[in-house]
Amino acid sequence: MYDTLHKAxxxxxxxxFESVRHARDFASETxxxxxxxxxxxxxxxxxxxxxxxxxxxxxxxxxxxxxxxAADPAGIRxxxxxxxxxxxxxxxxxxxxxxxxxxxxxxxLADDWGVEKRKPFGKIVWSYFKSVTQGVSVSVAAA
Length: 143
Ligand SMILES: Nc1ncnc2c1ncn2[C@@H]1O[C@H](COP(=O)(O)OP(=O)(O)OP(=O)(O)O)[C@@H](O)[C@H]1O
Ligand SMILES: [Mg+2]
Known about the structure:
- The protein is globular, with a radius of gyration of 16 Å.
- The protein is an alpha+beta fold.
- It has a single domain, classed as Histidine kinase-like ATPase, C-terminal domain (Heat Shock Protein 90, 2-Layer Sandwich).
- The protein has helices spanning 19-33, 40-57, 102-109, 134-142, and strands at 7-13, 65-72, 75-82, 112-117, 123-130.
- The protein has a five-stranded antiparallel beta sheet with strand order 1-2-3-5-4, with helices on one face.
- The chain is built from four helices and five strands; from the N terminus they run E-H-H-E-E-H-E-E-H.
- Helix 1 packs antiparallel against helix 2 (40-57).
- Residues 49, 53-54, 56-58, 82, 84, 86-89, 99-103, 125 line the site of adenosine-5'-triphosphate.
- This is ATP-binding protein.
- Keywords: ATP-binding, Nucleotide-binding.
- It comes from Streptomyces pratisoli.
């Protein structure tokens, strides 16, 4: 059933508003090709937030961002790479604040997430989503 358990795809997106939608489409196409639509909606939503953050908050050369999706037997790792120096900040917004909730969505939907240094500069904001059909696929594969 899953002959594509270890796969990765990456794509660069330029610094423009439409790139968030194009990145979501890239995720949909990739996850469909991998037969992982079970967790596609959560991944697409988190990607919207992380890509918007890269566009809005990251400085650095080009100011575009790169999306990488990687599948392993247990789930999917989503990465958004940008060249900016600033860091994601998870301090809670107050009730009146109209921004500052994107990373709360990621925290809620992803099974885990974090930030790593990117070489030579910038950062990788990653999130991990366990496959909800993992148990089924493993038992089918073992049968
Ligand atoms: N890729 C990034 N580069 C630099 N700073 C970031 C990045 N992502 C997030 N941040 C910082 O972390 C803060 C919190 O991000 P978060 O997505 O939660 O809120 P927001 O983008 O300010 O508002 P919202 O997502 O609700 O529109 C941002 O305001 C910004 O200061
Ligand atoms: Mg945001």
